[in-house]
Amino acid sequence: MRYHHDFRHCIHMRANALAVVDQAMIPTSKKTFIATVVRYAPAITLANLLLVIAFGLGVTRLHVESGIKVFFDKNDPYLLEQELIERTYGKEDNILIVIEAKHGTIFTPSVLASLQSITEQAWQIPNSRRVDSPKQLSLPGRGRG
User: Fold this and answer.
1) Which is nearest to 100 in space by CA: 81, 114, 87, 84?
2) Per-residue pLDDT averaged across 90-98, rounded?
3) What is the rounded CA–CA span in Å between residue 122 and residue 24?
4) CA-to-CA distance for 39 and 15, rounded, in angstroms?
């Protein structure tokens, strides 16, 4: 039978490995560890396989919360206010304000002054984190401002 021959060969190989470990100049604690690993190799392999399967099954239940709500308590006043805003206006994070000149271009002193005022007022909207406005942009070849 080929199976018995392979099995006996495997046992013989392990016995040889243990003999080599015994004769090597390795500290006793390491010899004990190596001998244990060699002696119980099939059981250790089976245990590792079972652990991989168990963790693999657990991965299917793994999920990531990426919303802002995970960082706040459910009764946090800022979160409650954010939820109220979302229920009232939807869940969009952006507000777009469009300005159109009645005559000519928006690049006149009076329209730009109005644009500056609107930009400053936009920063006063609760929970504002960013306001983009042409008034804040730098032009090529000019300094910031």
Assistant:
1) 114
2) 76
3) 77
4) 8
Give me the pLDDT at residue 145, please. Answer: 43
The residue whose two tokens read 């009232």 is 88
- The structure tokens 């000019």 sit at 142
Residue 60: is it exposed, middle or buried by C-beta count within 10 angstroms (0-12/13-18/19+)? exposed
The residue type found at 2 is: R
Indicate the pLDDT class of residue 20, thresholds 50, 70 and 90.
Answer: low
Round to whole Å and give the CA distance between 113 and 91.
31
Question: Which pair of tokens denotes residue 47?
Answer: 């245990």
Neighbours of 69 (CB within 10 A): 13
Residue located via tokens 């308590």: 73
Compute the distance between CA of residue 80 and CA of residue 75 in angstroms, rounded to an integer.
Answer: 7
d(CA 84, CA 126): 13
User: How far is it, in rounded angstroms, from Cα 33 to Cα 128?
Assistant: 61
- Residue 46: the pLDDT is 96
The tens digit of pLDDT for each residue in 38-84 reads: 889 999 999 999 999 999 988 888 888 877 788 889 899 988 988 88
